[in-house]
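Lab notebook page, bench 4
Experiment: in silico fold of construct C2
Operator: M.H.
Input chain length: 369 residues
Purpose: comparison with the prior construct
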Amino acid sequence: MRTAETKVVSASETKVLFSGLQTFPALVLAVSGGPDSTALMVLAARWRDSLKTKPKLIAVTIDHGLRKESKGEAAGVARLARKLKIAHRTLRWTGRKPSTGVQEAARAARYRLLGDVARKAGATHILTAHTLDDQAETVLIRMARGSGLTGLGAMAKVSPLPVVQRAPGKGEVEGAEICLVRPLLDIPKSRLVATLRAAKIDYADDPSNRDPRFTRVRLRGLMDALAHEGLDARRLTLLARRLKRAEAAIEAAVDRATSELAVELPAQNAITIEARGFAELPAEIALRLLCRAVAKTGDEGPVELGKLEALKSALDAAENTANRRFRRTLAGAVVTLEGHQLIVERAPPRGRKLLTTPGPRRLSHAKTR
C-alpha cells in the first residue's frame, strides 16, 4: 500500500505543476541524471505530450568533470531524452577547478552554461528539479549561517537566473532576463523516485550526495532526527512560505517609507533621508531602507546583514547623544548624520569632498538582500 510520500505523481498533478508554461515556445530543463532531474524530464515530456501546442523541450546536462562516472551519466540522460523526444545537449565545465568551494563554483558554472543554452535557443525559462527536501535543507543551511528573514524564505518557485561570472577577462553575464522555474518545489523526493520506479526508468546515483564534507549532506543527515521531533521537510517548507509572505509585507512597508523619507540626488550619487522620520521607523523597516540606500550608492557589492546591523546600532546610539555626530563607511558608501538629514553617498577617492549641495529626486525601489 502506497503512503502519501511514495505515491506516484499523477497526470492531473503534472498538469498543475507545469501550469502557465505552455505559452512559451521553448523551455530548458536542467537534467543531471539523478532521480530528481530525471523525474523532471519524464514529467515535462508527459505534460508536453498532453498539449495541443507543444513547447520545445531542451534537456541540458552539465558534465562538471569532477567524477569519472559523469560522462556515462550524461550519455544516459541523452538516451532517455531521445526516447522521450526531447532535444539534449551535454556541456562541459572546463578549466581549472578550485580546491575549496567547489560546489559553489560548480553551481555558478552550471547557471552560466544553462543561461548560454537558453539564450541561444530563445528560451526565457530554465526548469530545475529542486524538491521539497531541497527547500527544507536550504532553510536549515541559511539558519546555520545566520540569514535574515529574506534568506530564510529560501527558494522561490520562480526567480531570476543568478548573475554569473564568465571566464577571466570576459566580464559578468546578467541573468535577470532569464527565469529559473522550480515546478517540483512542493513534491518530496520520495514521490519522484516512486514515479520513476513505476515507469521502470533508471537514474544515476551521485556519491557526492552522501559526502559528509559538504554542509548540505551533513544537515541532510539530521533530517530524520528533526522529523522525529516534528520538524520535518514539510514544516520547514511551511516556515519558508510564511516568512516569504511576511517578507512581501515588509518590503511594501519599506517602499512606503522610501517614498516618504528618501530623496535621491543623482548628480552627487547620494541619497538623503529625513532623520527624525527614519528614527521613528520600526527597526526592520529602517534597516532595509538604509540597506537600499547603501546598496544603491556604494560600489563594493552586496551589503552584509551583520555589518548593516552594526552600522544601524551605531547610528541609533549617535542619534541619542547631544552632538549627534556620525560618519561610517559600509560597502563603498559613506553614511553621515548631519543636522536633520541622514546622507548616504558613494565613498569618494582620496582628496575628493563629500556631498554639499542637495537636489530632490525620490529614491526608487531596489531590493538588496
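Observations: The domain at 253-346 is CATH 3.30.465 (Uridine Diphospho-n-acetylenolpyruvylglucosamine Reductase; domain 3). The chain has two domains: 4-231, 253-346.
Next step: discuss at group meeting.
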